[in-house]
Amino acid sequence: ILSDRTAHASLSDPFPQQRSSAAARAGRSEHGPGWGSSRTSRLCSPCWGSCSWPGAAWSFDYHPASLRGSEEPADLQDLCHAPRVVGRCRASIPRWWYNVTDQACQTFVYGGCGGNENNFLTRKECLRVCAGVTAPKKQDSEAFPGNDFNYEDYCAAKAVTGPCRAAFQRWFFDAEKNTCAHFIYGGCRGNKNSYLTQEDCMSKCFGKRTYNSSHPVVPHSTKEPLLSPAVALAVLLAVMAAVLLGAMVVIFIKMARKNQASAFSTVWSPIDDKEYLVKSAYTL
């Protein structure tokens, strides 16, 4: 039985001695896994010992999900707001993700690579991290009462992607162009000039520049062009038809004058009548 257990352990764990020695150095039981995160997958995986394999980003003595509410809650909000990502690989791994619209953890099939942080091994883990997280509410243009609104912070600051490697579509207000533009938010350490929708961004910042702001406003016209392509084409064809008709009228007038001039040049002269009478007299 012992030999069977040893054989099974060697098959499930290719490096039992290294794991045991690493666990001893770390002061952790070889049967008590820690948790580590890979820089590539950015997902937590159980490990033994120091969890310092090549490419490891950080390690914990407990699952990082237990940190909920204690460190960077804004980042957890972004994690739970992230969409479901199957990934580009073709594996079929059952996982759980938090649907912030339904406020529920739901199953999906993970391809094995290229996912995001909204990816959990169990429903229990998903709920422990994201339970109670709600979708951000849209605020009206009066969301910053009194002196709470700072144009420099909310509208004039440059877009900041942040050091994290998520890919959230966000909008920021470009004070130099006086309009909103989209950018990719990494998921952490951004700034206040970051909005979920273009409408939200415009309602917060457009026309809100204060007089003491150091950013001049460039006039931004929201009017539609006066002529659509179809109308412009119709106008162009009408002008060309008018020019062609005018050219034809001019040519017709010139031809009429030329015919009239040639008709005047062939008028019968009285001299011809005299010559005819003289010839008739000689004949008699």
TrEMBL record:
One Pfam match: Kunitz_BPTI
Subunit structure: Interacts with TMPRSS13; the interaction promotes the phosphorylation and cell membrane localization of TMPRSS13.
Region (Disordered): 1-41
Name of this protein: Kunitz-type protease inhibitor 2
Keywords: Cell membrane, Cytoplasm, Disulfide bond, Glycoprotein, Membrane, Protease inhibitor, Repeat, Serine protease inhibitor, Signal, Transmembrane, Transmembrane helix
Record-annotated BPTI/Kunitz inhibitor domain positions: 80-130, 155-205
Record bears the keyword Nuclease: no
SUPFAM superfamilies with a match to the protein in the record: BPTI-like (SSF57362)
Compartments, record wording: Cell membrane; Cytoplasm
Superkingdom field: Eukaryota
Organism, as annotated: Monodelphis domestica (Gray short-tailed opossum)
GO cellular component, one term: plasma membrane
GO molecular function per UniProt: serine-type endopeptidase inhibitor activity
Transmembrane segments: 230-253
UniProt KW Transferase keyword: no
Recorded topology in the membrane: Single-pass type I membrane protein
InterPro entries xref list: Kunitz_BPTI, Kunitz_BPTI_sf, Prtase_inh_Kunz-CS
SMART domains: KU
